[in-house]
Amino acid sequence: MILSVSARKKLHALVSFLLAAALLVVGLLSAPLVQAGPRADKVYRQAASYYNNSRGFFVRDLSRNQWQECLRLFEKAYECDPRDQKVAPKALYMMAIIYSKAYEQFNMREDLKAAASYYEKLTFGFPDHSLADDAMVALGKIALKNRDNLEMLGKERLLNKALAMYGADQGVNDTAGFLLKRLQEHAEQRGIEPLPPAKSTIVNSITPPAHAAHVSRPVRFWSNENYTRVVIETSAPVRFKEHVLKAEGSLPPRLYVDLFDCRIPPTYQNPITISDGLLKRSRAAQFDPSTARVVIDLETFSQYKIFSLHEPFRVVIDITGTRQQKESTATVEQQRAWQADKEFTLVEQLGLGVRTIVIDPGHGGKDPGAVGRNGLLEKDVVLKVALKTRDALRKKGYRVVLTRSTDVFLPLEERTAIANTENADLFLSIHANSAPNRKARGLETYYLSLATSKEEKQAAALENAVSSKQLSELQDILSDLMKNSKIDESRKFAGTLQHSLAGGMQKRFNRVKDLGVKKAPFFVLIGAQMPAVLAEVAFLSNTEEEKRLGNDSYLAALAMELANGVDSYNRSLVAFGPSFD
Ligand SMILES: [Zn+2]
Q1: Which helix (H) or strand (E) covers residue 203, if one does?
Q2: What spacing in Å lies between the alpha carbon of 378 and ligand 1's midpoint?
């Protein structure tokens, strides 16, 4: 049984309200504000004392009521000021310990779940507190002990965050064990005793002041010779401003981004030497108490674009250099293999047509995309179509890279980054649509531009997973983001693809509706350096189309027509290529 807290919470809310009202009056009278700190500290010490006294010198088991009383006292200390850097993390840690001890004693799953969630709250709410590592180690231990039953604990949330935070590779065997080892190393490096006894948590610690947001993951980047995308993720939306510094003396060209009212935990402050094509090095630091700064050292610099995405909030920076793009990273043998079944033309041998296509099956992992009335998931359907399209294109001699080939979650910005770093000639994102009107049906192909119709806006809000307000903010800055994008080529590619897709499917099946070429600001298309389109192959919200998408031969037909569309576009390029007479 979890403590029943709702009644107390209501009372607490009322008290908080009265207190806030009183403080406001005090504030208006210009009297000094009451500090929450000393009171929280006092309440915490009372709780700690009760805890120590009940357990006694010879640690003994407590009754359920005693555990609940301990919990109540630490919760009270926490609620004095949940953002207080000194008391709140210690109180969270103690609540987690109490729940895990209660779990050891009573073996109730709910207690373990609560323990994990308090450790998690501490780790992510106070990432630079000295107990954050210990909480992470404790989480790792819980994950390890319960590895057969991680679903119950919210495995994905717990482990993915922990792994991302410490930069561990995914797909390692026995993830939890690996995580634990990494965390213990980390804690030892920082000279922190893993899992201190309860008493040592009452030590004072000096930590920087709390702010509304913090950098919540290591800075991520994708890079090749002439392009890099850098992504900074924060716990809440922040204001930001970028600056460019030209190369001077021995210093390389640099771009830095200041994030205001934002902290960066020490864990993420180390400089990372990357030396990966355009990107030389990335450094992040707390520039002043309220400003986090990320500096990017570059090999060469030509231009950049910067924009933000929501939920989670991240700042995306695309930078291009001045180097000539390499024609291809493929060896001659590889190219021969890809083109084994294909007749060589001079134009193709010169690399003038389409060689590499990046196919992006939408959604994946924790993001199911649209859900059909009978439960079919967009992420599963589009993955099947993408795999079949890849096979069909390979048979035609193209090189194909998938952004995902399994059921994994991939942020939108990473998909475009893959296409850019692979030097892809085309980018094709595959989706299935959904609409409030269940009669809506058909297939359509989008390219990046302002959405004008209601349907276009609806589709973009859905695929971007944003509100219509966030969408209109994006529309405002879109014209800037689209400069130097291959918009004309994308429109042409969309037209050719849609013609093949709709025309081809109509020949094979009845009641296939051609909705034509449309335009909308899809995040996944922003920053693509090649013609890029998004195909919506059907409406999952339409029962008949959902049924069709459950049928493998229908998916195979879609894949065949998508591949034909790519091929037609390539042939149109080659036809208009230079003459070699
Ligand atoms: Zn989608």
Answers
A1: none
A2: 7
Alpha carbon of 465 to ligand 1 centroid (Å): 9
User: Ligand 1 centroid to 401 CA: how many Å?
Assistant: 19
Distance 312 CA to ligand 1 centre (A): 18
User: Ligand 1 centre from 317 Cα, in Å?
Assistant: 24
- State in Å: Cα 398 to ligand 1 middle: 25
**ipTM for the complex shown:** 0.99
- How many whole angstroms separate alpha carbon 144 and alpha carbon 150? 9
| Antiparallel, parallel or unpaired: β 356-361 and 399-402 | parallel
Q: In angstroms, what is the span from residue 431 Cα to ligand 1's centroid?
A: 4
pLDDT in tens, 490-540: 999 999 999 999 999 999 999 999 999 999 988 899 889 899 999 999 999
Ligand 1 centroid to Cα of residue 32, in Å, is: 54
DSSP labels, 349-389: HTT-S--EEEEEE--BTTB--SB-TT--BHHHHHHHHHHHH
CATH class of 213-320: mainly beta
Give 402-430 pLDDT, tens digit per residue: 999 999 999 999 999 999 999 899 999 99
433: CA distance to ligand 1 center in Å?
A: 6
Question: From ligand 1's centre to the CA of 363, what distance in Å?
Answer: 6
Q: Supply the CATH classification number for the domain 353-450+459-464+521-575.
A: 3.40.630.40
- Say how many Å lie between the CA of residue 10 and the centre of ligand 1: 41
Sign, Cα dihedral of 441, 444, 448, 450: negative
Distance 463 CA to ligand 1 centre (A): 5
Could you tell me how far CA 68 lies from the centroid of its own chain?
37
What residues does each domain of the chain span?
36-202, 213-320, 353-450+459-464+521-575
Pairing of β 532-539 and β 443-448: antiparallel
Per-residue pLDDT tens for 467-497? 777 777 777 777 777 776 788 899 999 999 9
Whole-angstrom Cα distance, residue 140 to residue 375?
A: 34
CATH of domain 36-202: 1.25.40.10
